Amino acid sequence: MDATTPGPLAADVLTRDDVRRALQEHDFAAAFTLIKKWGGLSQNRIAAACQLTPGKVSTIIKGQHQITSIEVIRRIADGLRIPGALLGLAPRPWESTPPDPRPADTPGERQPADDDVPWRPDATVALAGNLTRSDLVMDRRGASRALAAAAVTGTALLDPLEAWLQSAAASSRTRRVGRLGTRDVEQLEQTAQAFRRWDHQHGGGLRRKAVLGQLAEVAAALNEHQTDAVEGRLYRVMAHLSGTAATMAWDTGYQRRAQDYYRLALRSAHAAEDLIFGANVLAGMARQMLYRGQPQDALELVRLAQEGSRRVAGPRVRAMLHTREAWALAAMGRTAAFRRATEQAREALAATAAHDDEPYWIAYFDEAELAGVTGGRLLDLARQDRDHAEGAADHIRQALDRRGPEAARSHALDRIGLAECHFLAGDITGAVQETHRAADAATQTASARVRDQLGELYSYTVGHSKARAVRDVRDRLRDLLANR
Fold first, then answer.
1. What are the respective helix, strand and coil percentages of the chain, to the nearest 5?
2. pLDDT by residue (tens digit) across 368-418?
3. 69-85 pLDDT, tens per residue?
4. Contacts from 72-77 at CB under 8 Å and sequence distance 24+?
5. pTM for this one?
6. Could you give the angle at which helices 275-291 and 315-331 cross, rounded to 10 degrees?
7. Is 99 exposed, middle or buried (0-12, 13-18, 19+ CB in 10 A)?
């Protein structure tokens, strides 16, 4: 069902006090029963609309299963066309987006498939121009389509990236003479660094358009014939800006668009012959796959990054890549392999004192970052075996003590993870305290990733309605999530 499809419920059903009360209290046993009664929908029809199985709907109606996932609640809202306000959610996209009479892929909007664009510098510049141009003029309908586009996985994602290991093909086209000098490039490099620092500190996509505008300017400069020295640095700037644009798109919920910019960043690093930053881009793509529940794809991306950068990567980059590998292994349940990769990351990071020439963008990866990432992965394991919860909490506390709140997105994710550790350990009092701290931290960032993790944390507060403190913190999380 998309934004143009009418809902299955008659309008008067949602005006009934009993239906509205059940929805507002997230009492889906009562809500589904009343929808069957007053809306005339069968359990099968409810299940199909909400992307649930009929058996699951049956257990919900019987009170044998509670819906605790915000994501499932959103599916119910969208499938039955229940306004977000009735469920404590922000207005859903279909509430304000009028039907779009144009086909989803009108000829004028089609972009070439990524694997159809040759790995040649001039083709990369053209790709950057097309991508930024379409994003900068995107209207609300286009934004809704971009938000709904799913990330690419599997062979379609991985196979085209193999070309990163090959040398760039030469460009033979003629271009007008450019006039950028060393000072101009230095200013562009400083701007790219400033955007990257801002994104690391705050998260979210508030400055995404500014990054895209700068990226478009760099692409325009590369359309001219600059000196070799200037051109190489410009491709590196384009790679860094594209990487930041990818992170911002992801943080705004544009999963497919994030991949587009990650691939542009990888192509730009390839044109700049910057193997180390290319490995960093692949690591970013791997992290996105891990958040999307695709650990095998993530592991393939990390292995590709390690293969391409083996001879040039410094200790911090190697340590970061090992933690991405460990993350994928933990997600696959391979505990022994996870511990081996984590130890390799620790050994690599210990060698940083002898290397002071690593790129600025990897400076964030320090003992605090390693502790936070390790704690997060132990938390992944704790969801299957609660014996890991205490170790996860210890590592996350180390990250919080060393990192502080200045890295707002990472700080909020650490707080959320620590609260979940307390829930898993059965410490409800500690969990409530940490959840309030997590909520405080979440208000300091616009990151969609933080909101998603808050949604996961919300599920732990369901089922403890007798405890006033839990009810209060659950209400607070609902208020925060409703603004999404």
1. 70, 0, 30
2. 999 999 999 999 999 889 999 999 999 999 999 988 666 788 899 999 999
3. 888 888 899 889 898 88
4. 73/26, 75/50, 75/51, 76/28, 76/50
5. 0.73
6. 20
7. exposed
